[in-house]
Amino acid sequence: VVHSCWEAMMKSGVPDCGSTDTISAARRLGSEFADQGVGVTADYQAVSPLCRTSMEGSDSQVTYATHRTGPKSAADGEQTVSFFKHNTNSTPVYLLDGPVQPEVFFSQFATPSTSARPVVLKGMARRQPAYRRWRDKYLVRKLMKSSSDISSESVPMLLDTLLEANDSLLNGQLPQQLWGDVVVPSPLCHSAVQQRLFRGSIKTEINLDLTIVDDLQLETFDQLVCQLDGYSNFVLIAPEHSDAIPLRSGERRLQVNLDSVNSDMYEALLSVPWMSAKVEPGDCIYVPSRWFHYATYHNRTLVLGFNWNSLPQPFANWPQASEPANCSFDGSTLSTAEDFRYQLLEAMNGLEGTLQELTLAMEQELEILDAATQALVLFEAGDSNSDSTLTDDEILSVSGEVIDQIISGIDDSESSPAAGEENLQSPDMEEGSGTTQQDQLSDPDSQTHHEL
């Protein structure tokens, strides 16, 4: 069906296979077919051979979604079953209604380490100004530099056009123009929590047409996903059952369609205990770090997400706040230290946490020049049990002051290349010495050799 759609669009004179107009048209056609009960995959793999060749030969900047709509066709001889029909080992996520204070939320749900559990907070998103304000006309006027020539009749279509031209406007970090429409939710309205927010903490995701299915994935941070429009269904799997999900080292997502699962390849997945949740407009769902989640967003959806680095201490051990927390949102005040901590946790995912691996991660993933020195500072501060490895919990326990010290050291090393060049250009013969630096490096008994 999809191949026919693409062939028809090519014959009708659509100019460029890689253009956003073509992709949008395919998605609209896919949505119409899906409404008739036909499974449609409107992504790169579904493009007809003619159009696919054109895309591979172009320099188009369009990113093709890997999300799927409808069941994926099984390969010849492949036995597939529906995860939802086959795996009945499920329990519903707990629902909590009304205002939720940090003490309840962090004592019963967002607890340290693996004891955390998901919860749906009914009506929590309705308290966001964005829930009332974020309509097409308002969003277009906020996101565009000038709206003087936009008529009210054309605004609903213009949001679609605007996002096709720049999909990242509402799919990614919250734009500064919309900061005033967001407040910190009451469960997170505590100074200890706000100190764990990082620069990419507040994110938006919008889908105008299709039912979108995410991969089965995990994150290294805690999430509060708030549904402003549309509804979604979540599958959640606890970290202790991660062995049932065949991920390669360092990966955090599995591209699988739970409506059509290969029963031979994913036998363990089809019997793993899981939790289910339906998140309706105005609700939020808490997804703990390291929990696998698989979300299906239905029809037009608009999601606002709050992410933070997990707190290693139970709520009872938190320092008492000297004054009430400010629940207004200001993206300019988000912690640089927590942004570094978040990036480090992402870089260390799947690694054992030795000093060598930490150094390589900081050097290769974070592109830090003086990685060995800064890794040692972090390691000495974080390896609380002296087992020569640094776990996620230990990285989360390192104080913000130590992280700031590391960032300062990184800035100093990157801003003074002349000093390094001066050392490289120094003479081999040290003053008053009969040995060269090269001799000291090659001599196994020398102090310089041992320091190296």
Number of β-strand runs? 14
Strand content: 15-25%
Per DSSP, the total helix count is 17
**Whole-angstrom Rg:** 26 Å
Structural class by sheet pairing and helices: alpha+beta
Form type: globular
Percent helix among the residues? 25-40%
Largest sheet: 10 strands, mixed
Given as residue ranges, the uncertain stretches (5+ residues, pLDDT < 50) are 13-24, 30-74, 146-156, 418-442, 446-452
**Average pLDDT over all residues:** 75
Terminal residue distance? 64 Å
Give the tags.
two-stranded antiparallel sheet; ten-stranded mixed β-sheet; 452 residues; 17 helices; alpha+beta; disordered C terminus
Give the topology.
Layout: H1 2-11, H2 20-35, H3 49-56, E1 80-81, H4 83-86, E2 90-92, E3 94-97, H5 102-108, E4 119-122, H6 129-133, H7 136-143, H8 155-165, E5 172-173, H9 191-194, E6 197-207, E7 212-213, E8 216-217, E9 222-237, E10 253-254, E11 261-262, E12 274-279, E13 284-287, E14 292-308, H10 336-347, H11 355-365, H12 371-382, H13 392-397, H14 400-414, H15 417-424, H16 437-442, H17 447-451
Parallel strand pairs: 2-12, 3-4
Antiparallel strand pairs: 1-11, 4-13, 5-6, 6-14, 7-14, 8-10, 9-12, 9-13, 9-14
Helix pairs in contact: 1-2, 7-8, 10-14, 11-12, 12-14
